[in-house]
């Protein structure tokens, strides 16, 4: 379970409180505030706070005194224009603060996006819980033979069972030693900041992660992609659902021009134009490498 009864009671108490405000609010994200959305076996994503809405984007783009125009269609058209032409600063006017519980190895991949404010649970001051990410059998896969950072076929039978047993046993043994090093009765014990180094990368950590909408969209474009590692992709997909509720017009533009779109090189555009003109173009005559040609063919079919 991602949440204990005490944690759930704390969330329920937060959601029961209400404060009047003059600032812009979004009904969709208000309904999600503080609620924990489970991810993986022990993880979750929670919205802690936010600033701005769709109207804040158009207001900033126009530097206006009001909240956008009288026409929702005009606001939607402007947001789509801004997204289509890669205008970033109006989207930076909106911010989202998340509370995320995630395995350490996912956190180390996530933190590569250096455009957010992060405060992580400190294992120097507190003892980490005995919670480890253990993949479901369908997510145990061999190394890909064609992609150095990807997965291949799913492990099956005895091999899958052996890997799962090893992961569970090593995790428990490491945590047992972690507790023992911090001291038994009558012992001084090792400092928590040193004992933590014995824990495996699948132990869970937590952090607050605050990011503006422009940089959040960049994160989601990479991590919600089907090629992203499964364990971070499911977090990104959960966040996508929250952002859709928060800024529906901006998220629809993001889906149209980022998630569901493709980018062509200058040479790739010329190849497409030559094909449309009736020319038979091959990889050898295209000016593209074999990998670039394969990627272009994947886009245009």
Would you give an account of this structure?
- The structure is a single chain.
- Helix 4 (72-84) packs parallel to helix 10 and helix 9 (230-246) crosses helix 10 (248-259).
- The chain has helices spanning 5-16, 27-30, 54-62, 72-84, 104-110, 157-181, 192-195, 213-223, 230-246, 248-259, 266-276, 283-286, 290-300; strands at residues 36-39, 43-51, 95-103, 117-120, 141-143, 151-154, 204-212.
- It has 13 helices and seven strands.
- The chain has a five-stranded antiparallel β-sheet with strand order 1-2-3-7-4. A two-stranded antiparallel sheet has the order 5-6.
- It is α+β, with helices and mostly antiparallel strands.
- It folds into three domains: 5-133 and 202-259, Gyrase A, domain 2 (2-Layer Sandwich), CATH 3.30.1360; 138-201; 266-300, no CATH class.
- The two termini are 44 Å apart.
- The protein is flat and about 80 Å long.
- This is Flavin-dependent thymidylate synthase.
- It holds the Pfam family Thy1.
- It comes from Palleronia salina.
- Its EC number is 2.1.1.148.
- One of its GO terms (molecular function) is thymidylate synthase activity.
Q: Radius of gyration, rounded?
A: 24 Å
- Return residue spans where pLDDT drops below 50 for at least 5 consecutive residues: none
> What would you say the CATH architecture of the largest domain is?
2-Layer Sandwich
Number of helices: 13
Mean pLDDT: 92
Largest sheet: 5 strands, antiparallel
EC number: 2.1.1.148
Cofactor: FAD
Binding site for dUMP: 109-112, 120-124, 196, 223
Family: Belongs to the thymidylate synthase ThyX family.
